[in-house]
Amino acid sequence: MAPQLGPTYAQYDNGSSVFNNYWNFAGTSVPSGINTYTNAGSVIFNNGVIIKGGTSATGGENGIATSTSFSAPVIVEYYGTQSTSPAGNSWGYSTSGFSNYLSATDLYPSDSGTYTIVSFEGGNNGLLRTSQGGSITYGTLSTPSNNLFSASVWTNIYASSTYYTYQNYTNSTGYITGANNSASLPFAIIVGNNEASYAPNGMTVYYLRTRAYPPSGTAPTNAFGSIIHTVQIWNGTAWQAQNYYVWNGSSWVLNPSLKTWNGTSWT
């Protein structure tokens, strides 16, 4: 159960038993495995983590990153609001992704080092940057009027030659193909020093998790066989079966003799 859904934050959250790495930011302390960076902004843990920039039009990083570095292939997701900024902004960026250029005094996670990230800034919501080559296609999400996307799942799929990013699994926020993602990197969520000029309340992340990349990059599928639905009535002494229906893949059909549907006929 997602941590924010219970009567008490994280009361029924079992994410740590499900995912390879999992942080729900319960309580007010920095959890193990997370590094923080603040320059003109702030990072506050209080049943979720609020990442907020300042109002200074200068370079600097504010946010969190994993202390562990991840190699491709891996999927990293976080659930929360997502800040952005309109066209003409100055140091009002919000980025997530993989980078080793992380310090409160660094200007931007893609200014140096090795990085593959997606940024939300300047009216561009899916501005990808990488030092590992490849062909980039930007995302096209519209900028919210308050420069803050509502709580969503934000997915980063880091594979050996591709990088795909999504909002709520289906809305593309950009992708890279033909890359050489050989670097093992921390995952970071960073906002700029002037982000609070555009999103004054910052963004809130409720959980951060990693999960395994599916074999051959293919998600599992489900297949269902016949389902028997029995209708009984009480005959005064015992329950007596009256009609048997079986789902044949498109509708319930009468099966009075309890035969099996083989896809074509009853046998």
User: What share of the residues does DSSP label as strand, in percent?
Assistant: 35-45%
CATH domain topology of the largest domain: Jelly Rolls
> Which CATH-level-2 architecture of the largest domain?
Sandwich
Main sheet characteristics: 9 strands, antiparallel
| Tally of domains | 2
CATH class of the largest domain: Mainly Beta
- Mass-distribution shape: globular
**Average pLDDT:** 88
Can you count the helices?
1
Q: Roughly how many Å is the radius of gyration?
A: 24 Å
User: What gap, in angstroms, lies between the N and C termini?
Assistant: 43 Å
SSE order:
HEEEEEEEEEEEEEEEEEE
Unreliably modeled segments: 227-231
- Report the helical percentage: under 10%
Question: What class would the helix/strand composition place it in?
Answer: mainly beta
Give a structural overview.
The chain is mainly β and 267 residues long. It has 2 domains: 3-216, Jelly Rolls (Sandwich); 224-267, no CATH class. Helix content is 1%, strand content 42%. It contains 1 helix and 18 strands. A hairpin with a 3-residue loop joins strand 12 (163-167) and strand 13 (171-177). The protein starts with 14 loop residues before the first helix and ends in a 13-residue tail after the last strand.
